[in-house]
């Protein structure tokens, strides 16, 4: 059974790029259009890792990660923030709520795939 990654981004084109890169190497992918959509989908199937944007409508990435860390089921699920945000304050806010890593857009899909893979190595 493949590991499943949730991709949370309000940009459908970014979700597509990330999804294709992850599926190409065998990961299952669940897409969500923002934090609120992701909350609805979080318990629908097992999620092993989350890739999440910061700036989204409805529920932003920082609020979503705070929600994830507040749940028993997902408090240890790795979260990689994938965002245009470069400010130290935003990065600190991400760390404060429990984000595990931060990648700035534009990004190399191969770098993201490598980072995801590092979380699944035994």
TrEMBL record:
The name this protein goes by in its record: Response regulator receiver protein
Listed SMART domains: REC
Entries under PANTHER family matching the protein: CHEMOTAXIS TWO-COMPONENT RESPONSE REGULATOR (PTHR44591:SF25), STRESS RESPONSE REGULATOR PROTEIN 1 (PTHR44591)
GO biological process per UniProt: phosphorelay signal transduction system
Organism: Leptothrix cholodnii (strain ATCC 51168 / LMG 8142 / SP-6) (Leptothrix discophora (strain SP-6))
Pfam families: Response_reg
Gene3D superfamilies named in the record: 3.40.50.2300
Family matches, as InterPro entries: Bact_response_regulator, CheY-like_superfamily, Sig_transdc_resp-reg_receiver
Residue stretches making up the Response regulatory domain: 4-120
Keyword list, A-Z: Phosphoprotein
Highest taxon, organism lineage: Bacteria
4-aspartylphosphate: residues bearing it: 53
């Amino acid at each position: 059974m493949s590991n499943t990654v949730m991709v949370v981004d309000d940009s459908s084109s970014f979700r597509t790029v990330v999804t294709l890169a992850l599926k190409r190497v065998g990961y299952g992918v669940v897409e969500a259009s923002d934090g609120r959509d992701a909350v609805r989908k979080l318990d629908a199937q097992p999620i092993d890792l989350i890739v999440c944007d910061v700036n989204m409508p409805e529920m932003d990435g920082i609020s979503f990660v705070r929600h994830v860390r507040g749940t028993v089921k997902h408090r240890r699920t790795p979260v990689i923030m994938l965002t245009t945000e470069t400010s130290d304050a935003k990065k600190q806010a991400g760390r404060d709520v429990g984000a595990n890593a931060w990648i700035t857009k534009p990004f190399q899909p191969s770098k993201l795939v490598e980072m995801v893979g590092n979380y699944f190595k035994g």
